[in-house]
Design brief:
With about 300 residues, the chain is α+β, with helices and mostly antiparallel strands. It contains 7 helices and 16 strands. The protein has 2 domains: about 120 residues, 2-Layer Sandwich (D-amino Acid Aminotransferase, Chain A, domain 1); about 150 residues, D-amino Acid Aminotransferase, subunit A, domain 2 (D-amino Acid Aminotransferase, Chain A, domain 2), CATH 3.20.10.10. The strands form 2 sheets. Strands 7, 8, 9, 10, 11, 12, 13, 14 and 15 form a 9-stranded mixed β-sheet that branches. Strands 2-1-6-5-3-4-16 form a 7-stranded antiparallel β-sheet. The structure holds pyridoxal-5'-phosphate (PLP). The site of pyridoxal-5'-phosphate has 13 residues, from β10, α5 and β13. Keywords: Aminotransferase, Pyridoxal phosphate, Transferase.
């Protein structure tokens, strides 16, 4: 098929289902897929910026490690997945994209409840880039420390395997909206800070960065920030982050593939620092976007390729 042309059908994105590349609006998964009925799935999201994937290998490493931990057999190998993601971006014609790949346990075989017997399924799609906080929103994120729920414990669901167990995060979102904010931050059962729906959290304390060690996804943006901070001579710690520290920090920010480095300017209606984007956050945000043209990190999309 000639989905390499970025025609109108593909303008909202391209998806891969059952060996076919289709416009994202037409993509369908089977109703009985346990990715849907049991959240038995892992996934990853890699960004495309200026026509190039950002840290593609690191995202694929995390994805394939997650599949292995869930004892899934991915139907495509690593180079086939790489080619597929490239093909989806090419089909969409997007220069800035949000590219997701997921592996589900699959569909139960004739009434069997034994997950070892299912054929695991791979899906993927490329859609326009998604922002948790749009860059023009200089006011930053208004965070709410969630009271109604705690982050699911790591010994129940491994947060380092990117997953769809978003019940706690979604509940946190509703609480944040109810309380007049938009960006929940969840604590764990010990009362320590974890993360929010789709983002890691950093605090700037005495000029140094602190980000939670456990109960969180090991975000690729988090890793990028830790590397860039070290290059800029900032000290960094991955450790427990207590709620009072969050409230006393001079700056706070969130990190995600969907938006990069995003300033958190208030917590529960109280300003962080002077309530504006701090200079550590602003410098790291600049460094993060500059890194998108750093050869260490980028894999250009092969838009000219005609290979199917
Ligand atoms: C729960 C959670 N934490 C953190 C992140 C940020 O991870 P990354 O920087 O790899 O996008 C995500 C990304 O979707 C996430 O779902």
């Amino acid at each position: 098929m000639s989905e390499t042309r970025a025609d109108a059908d593909f303008a909202r994105g391209a998806a891969y289902v059952d060996g076919e590349v289709v416009p994202v609006d037409q993509a369908r998964i089977p109703l009985l897929d346990t990715g849907l009925t049991r959240s038995d799935v892992t996934y990853d999201v890699v960004g495309v910026w200026g026509g190039a994937f950002f840290r593609l290998d690191d995202h694929l490493d995390r994805f394939l490690r997650g599949c292995e931990r869930l004892r899934m057999t991915v139907p495509l190998d690593r180079s086939e997945i790489t080619e597929l993601l490239d093909r989806l971006v090419r089909a969409s014609g997007l220069r800035e994209a949000y590219v997701e790949v997921m592996c589900t346990r699959g569909v139960p075989t004739s009434g069997s409840r034994d997950p070892r017997t299912y054929d695991n399924r791979l899906y993927a799609y490329a859609i326009p880039y998604v922002w948790i906080l749009r860059p023009e929103e200089e006011a930053g994120m208004d965070a709410v420390v969630v009271r109604s729920t705690r982050r699911i414990p790591p010994d129940s669901v491994d947060p380092t395997v990117k997953n769809f167990h978003w019940g706690d995060l979604t509940r946190g979102l509703f609480e944040a909206y109810d309380r007049g904010g938009r960006y929940p931050i969840l604590l764990d059962h010990r009362g320590f800070v974890t993360e929010g729906p789709g983002y890691n959290v950093f605090a700037v304390v005495d000029g140094a960065l602190v980000t939670p060690a456990v109960g969180v996804l090991e975000g690729i943006t988090r890793r990028t920030v830790l590397e860039l901070a070290a290059e800029h001579g900032l000290s960094t710690t991955i450790d427990d982050l207590e709620e009072p520290t969050l409230r006393q920090a001079s700056e706070l920010f969130a990190t995600s593939t969907a938006g990069g480095v995003m300033a958190i300017t208030s917590v529960d209606d109280s300003p962080v620092g002077d309530g504006r984007v701090g200079h550590v956050t602003a410098n790291l945000r600049d460094a993060y976007w500059k890194a998108h043209s750093d050869q260490r990190y980028v894999t250009p999309v092969d838009y000219a390729s005609r290979t199917q």
